[in-house]
Write a structure and sequence with these properties.
This is Lipoprotein. The protein is mostly helical. It has 6 helices and no strands.
């Protein structure tokens, strides 16, 4: 029983250990995953008949310029797709757009980390 308690304490201490700070590249990749998740959400809104003007109105509330530009670009691209192309396999369409915009974001040159809230 004492060994089990000691093991539990050690595991708890290891779990509470300080995490190493992320490199700028790791931070950018995390940001891009968030952009991809936003693209997936925008696709879901499109599939659920949310109007483009409502999506743009919501996107314009984003305070960070970089993030707003990404989101407005996603909205333009997603709402340009024909409904037939996104209504068949909705999960596949969402995953495809998420992966596409994650990769586009990663490939985008950047000087500083945007101020954003993860999606």
């Amino acid at each position: 029983m004492k060994k089990l308690l000691a093991l539990f304490v050690m595991v708890a201490l290891v779990g509470c250990a300080e995490k190493k700070p992320l490199t700028p590249e790791e931070q950018w990749q995390g940001y891009c995953r968030s952009v991809g998740n936003a693209a997936r959400s925008i696709m879901l809104d499109r599939q659920n008949a949310i109007a483009k003007d409502k999506a743009i109105e919501h996107a314009n509330k984003v305070e960070d310029d970089t993030t707003r530009k990404f989101v407005l670009g996603i909205i333009d691209e997603v709402y340009a797709l024909p409904l037939d192309a996104i209504k068949g396999d909705t999960e596949l369409a969402q995953e495809k757009i998420r992966a596409e915009f994650t990769q586009k974001c990663i490939a985008t040159p950047h000087d500083e980390m945007p101020d954003y809230k993860p999606f």
